[in-house]
Design brief:
mainly alpha
C-alpha cells in the first residue's frame, strides 16, 4: 500500500510543490520504488512462463526495493526533524560546546 501512495505522490505533485511543502523525495526512495515495480513485473513474468527462478528473483527484487525505499524515507524523516529543530531553536549556538 505504501508504494502505491508514494507512486501517487510522484505522479500527482510536481517537484516545486513538494519542496515548498517539505515533502521532497530523495533518490533512495525513487530507486526503491522502481525496484519494487520491476520486481513485481519479473515475478509476474516468472508466473506466466512457469519459471520459479524468475519468480524468486522478482520477489527478492521487490523486497530489496522495499528496504531501499524505507531507508530513503528514514533519511528524509531525520533531515526533516533536524530542520524543524533548528527552525524552532534559531538562537541555539553550537560554538560554545
Amino acid at each position: 500500500m505504501d508504494r502505491f501512495v508514494a507512486l501517487y505522490e510522484l505522479i500527482s505533485v510536481n517537484a516545486s510543490q513538494r519542496q515548498r511543502a517539505g515533502v521532497g523525495m530523495n533518490q533512495e526512495r525513487y530507486t526503491g520504488i522502481f525496484k519494487q515495480v520491476r520486481g513485481t513485473i519479473r515475478k509476474s513474468w516468472g508466473r506466466l512462463i512457469a519459471d520459479p527462478r524468475m519468480e524468486d528473483t522478482g520477489a527478492r527484487e521487490q523486497h530489496a526495493g522495499r528496504v531501499q525505499a524505507r531507508h530513503g524515507l528514514a533519511q528524509e524523516q531525520a533531515a526533516r526533524s533536524l530542520r524543524d529543530f533548528f527552525s524552532r531553536n534559531r538562537d541555539w549556538d553550537l560554538s560554545n560546546r
